[in-house]
Amino acid sequence: MREKPKQKVRIWATFCHLSALLGWILLVFLVFIGIPLYLPLNLLAPLIIWKCKKSQYPWIDFQGKESINFQISLTLSTLFVIAISLVIVLTSLSFAITSNASSNEIKNTLDNLLIVILSLISVKLVLQSFLVSFAAIKAYNGEHYRYPLTMRVLR
Question: Can you say whether the dihedral through the CA atoms of 122, 72, 42, 132 is positive or negative?
Fold first, then answer.
């Protein structure tokens, strides 16, 4: 049976998971105040923790890779959703303009698209918050946890 890592190591591993949420919160705050910026801030803190502590503690190496792999997967899926959203918005606008739709119909189309996109992003953020919190709890308890549906970039 594997020995449980020391508490100091488990705290660093937990912070490696939770620090990714801080990056998302900072990004949402920047967009909310009007700075249209998309940087993978969610990768920065886990990457720094993992790089600094991976050679000292194998537990942080494992947990850091898991956290970074999950955040890479989330970042790529977010970029995919943004790209698809832009295509849908531009396609909808072009159909509305070429069919001589009234400004009210165009506004309704864009409002509906915005609701769908915001719903997708909200579901993604809630799911991510749940999975990251669950992984952080598992890391703190010294249990192995692997995120579901994650590309394993770092092995």
Answer: positive
CB 17 within 8 A of CB 139: yes
Residue 56 CB burial class (10 angstroms; 0-12, 13-18, ≥19): exposed
Give the pLDDT confidence of 95-110 residue by residue, as tens digits.
777 877 777 777 787 7
- Which residue carries 């995919």 as its tokens? 80
Q: Is the pTM above the cut of 0.85?
A: no
Helix residue ranges, H only, the chain: 7-32, 41-53, 58-98, 103-140
Q: What is the DSSP string of 90-124?
A: HHHHHHHHHTT--HHHHHHHHHHHHHHHHHHHHHH
CA distance 125 to 145: 20
CB distance 50 to 67 below 8 Å: yes
Q: Token match 């600094």: residue?
A: 52
Three-class secondary structure of residue 154 per DSSP: coil
Residue 1 pLDDT greater than 60, yes or no: no
pLDDT tens profile 19-28: 988 887 887 7
The count of C-alpha atoms lying within 13 angstroms of the C-alpha of 19, restricted to the half-sphere facing its C-beta, is 19
